[in-house]
Amino acid sequence: MHSIPTIQGTHGITGKPIEIRFEQGKIEQIKPLAGPSTVSSSILPPLIDLQVNGYGGVDFQQDGLTLEQMEHASLTLVRDGCAGYFATLITCPWEQMLSRLQHLKQLRQSSSILSRHLLGWHLEGPFLSEEPGFSGAHDACCMLDPTIEHLLAIKAITQDDPCLLTLAPERPGSMTFIQEAQKLGIKVSLGHTNASNTTLNEAHIAGATGFTHLGNACPQALDRHDNILVRALDPACWITGLIPDGIHVSPALFRLLHRCIPSGQIYYTTDAMAAAGSPPGRYSLGNIELEVGADQIVRHPGRSHFAGSALKPVEGIQRASRMLGCHWSQLWKHVSTIPSEWMGLNLGLAIGAKALCTLASEGSDGNLKLEVIAA
Ligand SMILES: [Zn+2]
After folding, report:
1. Ligand 1 centre from 34 Cα, in Å?
2. Domain with CATH 2.30.40 in the chain
3. CATH code assigned to 1-45+348-375
4. What is the model's pLDDT at position 163?
5. What's the CATH number for 47-345?
6. 219 C-alpha to center of ligand 1: Å?
7. Can you state the angle between helices 174-184 and 148-158, rounded to 10 degrees?
8. What are the tens digits of pLDDT across the range 25-72?
9. How do strand 84-90 and strand 48-52 relate by DSSP bridges?
10. H helix intervals, the chain
11. pTM for the full model?
12. How buried is residue 282: exposed, middle or buried, by Cβ count under 10 Å (0-12/13-18/19+)?
């Protein structure tokens, strides 16, 4: 990460040489350059990730995380090409989840590194399906039906921060919760759900806009005529998260999903846990002990489901490009403008946008190299 007043490069979308000047944490000027740029890198809207459960050996699902731990996780994400992320908290006892959120919010307020890169909050749970296979790595014993009291407790902590909440709309109380969440500026995404077509439609009308890591959080064996994948795809209305590691969603399904879902409605997420950005070994996700091998697959001993990924953001877009057979630059919107615009983040190559962008270049080995620029 560099903190500098200006950068030069090729505009990642127009292909023209430009210079960007930063001032007081914002993009102040974008100036076309007359001659060819002196650097070969592309300047792109920042790569962001809306679902990060932990990184660089730090598990966000713990009480009493230190500032050093959160700054280490943030800077390791930055090292791996992720300019900004939503810290994600998964299902645990409700009061504990709130106190973890409150604690992380306080850490963020005391750190320029965190306030620059920790862009918002993603609460994945506790309002999820308890059905086996749909609950995934979440503890079904801690799940709850959503109420307005829950919503107000979240809002009291997150205040005006960007906030995403994943829930299963078949839980009683969901529709009122979704309507009120929308009014408070909290985005609702559906996930870990086995909702019927009718319930999904009601959730859409109530104001839910997203679908979290489609293709995951469902049983390995599904009814071929009627399953959550088909129900979620049929209306083509959701801003859909996909994990582009080739493991959570097979390459063939990944390609099919790109044909079924309008391109402007797909965003990629790593759903990373503590092992991402760290060597293979044993890591925690809340109170679950997980093993991560050299293949980066996160294994929950004795269970069939995956529990987060060990995918680095820079690897995600390269794997997506290999699976889809296209250049990574064509997919950049799925890690930048699409999630950013959905969440209402002030990011991008525009005057007044937050001073955060990504420099991308291809090394002699053909690998994508990303550098986060923040000012
Ligand atoms: Zn999940």
Report:
1. 48
2. 1-45+348-375
3. 2.30.40
4. 98
5. 3.20.20.140
6. 13
7. 30
8. 999 999 999 876 566 799 999 999 999 999 999 999 999 999 999 999
9. parallel
10. 67-79, 94-109, 112-117, 148-158, 174-184, 197-206, 228-233, 251-260, 313-324, 328-331, 337-342
11. 0.95
12. exposed
Q: Is 68 exposed, middle or buried (0-12, 13-18, 19+ CB in 10 A)?
A: exposed
How far is the centre of ligand 1, averaged over its atoms, from the C-alpha of 185 (Å)? 22
Question: How many whole angstroms from 152 Cα to the centroid of ligand 1?
Answer: 23
β-bridge partners, 30: 20
Q: Ligand 1 mean position to 145 CA, how many Å?
A: 17
| Tokens coding 241 | 């998260």
Kindly state the tokens that stand for 257: 């999903």
Give residue for tokens 């994600």.
88
Which residue type occupies 73? A
CA of 163 to the centre of ligand 1 (A): 16
**Cα distance between residue 300 and residue 76, in whole Å:** 24
Q: Which amino acid is at 315?
A: E
- For the stretch 9-32, pLDDT in tens is 999 888 899 999 999 999 999 999
Whole-angstrom distance, CA of residue 342 vs CA of residue 345: 8
Cβ distance 217 to 191 under 8 Å?
A: yes
Measured CA to CA, the distance from residue 189 to residue 238 in angstroms comes to 8
Q: Which residues lie closer than 8 Å to 251 by C-beta, 6 or more apart?
A: 323
Domain with CATH 3.20.20.140 in the chain: 47-345
- 36 burial level (CB within 10 Å; 0-12, 13-18, 19+): exposed
> How many angstroms does the Cα of residue 136 sit away from the middle of ligand 1?
7
Q: Could you give the count of Cα atoms lying within 13 Å of 355 in the half-sphere of its Cβ? A: 19
Per the DSSP assignment, residues forming a β-bridge with 54 are 59
Q: What is the pLDDT of residues 242-274, one digit of tens each?
A: 999 999 999 999 999 999 999 999 999 999 988
Cα separation of 340 and 82, whole Å? 13
Which amino acid, residue 105?
K
Q: Phi, psi at residue 241, to the nearest 5°?
A: -90, 135
What is the reported pLDDT for 302?
66
